[in-house]
Amino acid sequence: MSSVAKHLAQGLEVLSETALTSLRAEGSQWIASTSGGSVFSAGAVVLTPPAPQSLALLDTGAVDLPPDLRVRLAAIEYDRCLAVMAVLDEPSSRIPFPGGLSPVSGPLAWISDNQAKGISPVPAVTLHATAAFSLEHWDRDRTESGLLLIEAAREWIGPRVREFQVHGWRYSRPRILDASPCVMASLRPPLVLAGDAFGPGGIEGAALSGLAAARAILEASPG
Fold first, then answer.
1. What is the CATH number of the domain that holds 210?
2. What is the C-alpha to C-alpha distance for residues 46 and 194, in angstroms, rounded to an integer?
3. What is the rounded CA–CA span in Å between residue 122 and residue 118?
4. Of 43, 49, 138, 216, which is least surrounded by CB within 10 A?
5. Contact 82/133 with Cβ under 8 angstroms?
6. What's the rounded Cα separation, in Å, for the pair 75 and 70?
7. Distance in angstroms (rounded) separating the CA atoms of residues 100 and 87
8. Global pTM?
């Protein structure tokens, strides 16, 4: 999923794993501060984190949103997801081509064969728990939850798991979305909120939301 973004980002300066601590407006510029002490300015900003994180970031810079817009953004809700990445002793022959399946019952929502997909040099799978399982087990021991998900996946991954890691996404899949493909939170200077919680949602919805955000900024830019 990241290949398109990486292609479009060729020639651009991209900072990853850089936490923003505040975002504020100064005249015609947005000023962003990072946890490492760096400060950046920009004539326009697109925010694509989950809506609660975007709102929290805007609050740090005392960005004044219209009350109706704040209520609208606060209404966006997300499911949680516990995910397991497991390395296997041997490739799985039970996950159908092209390397993914959605079980119809049980605690698993998705099983992915990472080697078959070409993103792992060794036999490995990713397991996504259902929203119900993730919520129930969110505050429990992650290793124990991971073992439960691995046991539920035995039918497809086989008996031997060499090692595994468990990760939790608090904002995994939008459950309540905003109908608009993006939201213009500020016109001068432009600030647009976008992502998979806007419009139709999902991967395609996220891409369409990004395109809508670009159009909104171009239309708001002078000249």
1. 3.50.50.60
2. 7
3. 10
4. 43
5. yes
6. 9
7. 16
8. 0.87
Residue 21: what residue type?
T
User: 122 with 69, same domain?
Assistant: no
Residues 216 and 169 in one domain: no
Domain hosting residue 208, numbered range:
2-76+177-220
Considering the domain architecture, whether residues 88 and 150 belong to the same structural domain is answered as yes
Cβ-Cβ contacts under 8 Å for 67 (sequence gap 6 or more): none
Residues 6+ apart with CB under 8 A from 200: 177, 208
- The predicted-structure confidence for 113-130, as pLDDT tens digits, reads as follows 999 988 899 999 999 999
Residue 76 predicted with pLDDT over 70 = yes
* Cis before 189 (ω within 30): yes
- State how far the alpha carbon of 143 is from the alpha carbons of 40, 79, 83, 120, 159, in Å: 39, 21, 11, 22, 17
**Cβ–Cβ under 8 Å, residues 21 and 58:** no
Task: Classify the C-alpha dihedral 65-68-71-75 as positive or negative.
Answer: negative
Angle between helices 67-74 and 51-60 (to 10 degrees): 140
Per residue in 138-147, pLDDT tens? Answer: 999 999 999 9
Task: Tell me: pLDDT of 222 over 70.
Answer: no
Interval 200-216: pLDDT, tens = 998 899 999 999 999 99
Identify whether the C-beta of residue 134 lies closer than 8 Å to the C-beta of residue 172.
yes
Tell me the sheet residues that pair with 33.
22, 39
Higher per-residue confidence, 179 vs 188: 179
